[in-house]
Task: structure prediction
Amino acid sequence: MIRVVSIQFNPAGKMYDFNAGTLDLKPGDRVVVETERGISLGAVVTSPQEKDETGFSHPLAPVQRLLGPEDEKTLAHHNRREKEAYDFCLRRIKERGMDMKLVRVEHLFDGSKAIFYFTADGRVDFRELVKDLAHTFHTRIEMRQIGVRDEAKMVGGLGICGRELCCASFLRDFQPVSVKMAKEQNLALNPSKISGQCGRLLCCLDYEYETYCDLRKNFPKCGKRVRTPQCSGTVEKMNLLTGELILRQEDGKQIAVKVKELLDENSPLATQQEPAKELEQGQPQQAPRRPREQQPQQRRQRPAPSPASAAAPVSEAVVTVAPKAAAVEKAEATPQQPQSDDKQKRKKRNRRHGHRKPSDQKTEKPPQE
Result:
């Protein structure tokens, strides 16, 4: 069994486990520990607890000592160097016209490295800037690009609620936030009202999202028609916290009801009132329309005309036209005479080019069956 203590290196930062050994530590104490990047200064978050050493995948690093007077002087010296490095780097960025924003400079407790945190829209070529910084401060330089949410966590500030930013005070990990969370909570989708100091959606939208989802299960959707013992209407608005609904009636009036007053669709009272509504409106029920596939086939497809029906208009035309009737009867009684060569050529030419027969040939023999 070993005594394990949790330590953080930045306010509201991630916590790491260390071996407290025999030191008497309590939350808030500042200690010196050894990490992968060197000697660092951290703050104790939890009291030491007895835990089994086999429960950890790797051996825990020990806490070296509490912060002493000499360490306070070293820390003050690093703070002055961080401010000088920040001002110098900011001037170089402006002189070179680099598209980046310097956020913070951090010196390791042992002074072996200086870390420059910055934000940028894309990749930045800072090789010449690193040479200037290394030549001036004579230490290892690391340029680390971060996001806008990490920038807000480092800088801090006040939110639209008037309190300190959640990420800078107690929020250790960033959770994904979407516009759907704002819609479920009936918030106005105004970017200036649902965005934080970082320009992203507010982290607090995630706090009550599950509660609103549970409350919405008992409410009908907007636009659905509901009924109460006194009235009926369409859901216009809803208030999940107070349990009230705004119903729009048929005459356009709006009325507020409680969600507990709604009748179930399967309740006897609701089923008895449905026929009464139909009688009041006086609208007869219309027979359901048959699908298109079940309609009579004669309406969809007209049958082809028979040869007898095709010849009927010709006979009628012959009867109505009196001067030509005798010629038609004579042509039917007498056998067809052979045509001359000129008429045959003209007929073939007209058929080949798609022309209609001349009007003087209408009195010729009609097509035989």
In short: Residues 270-284, 306-338 have pLDDT under 50 and may be disordered.
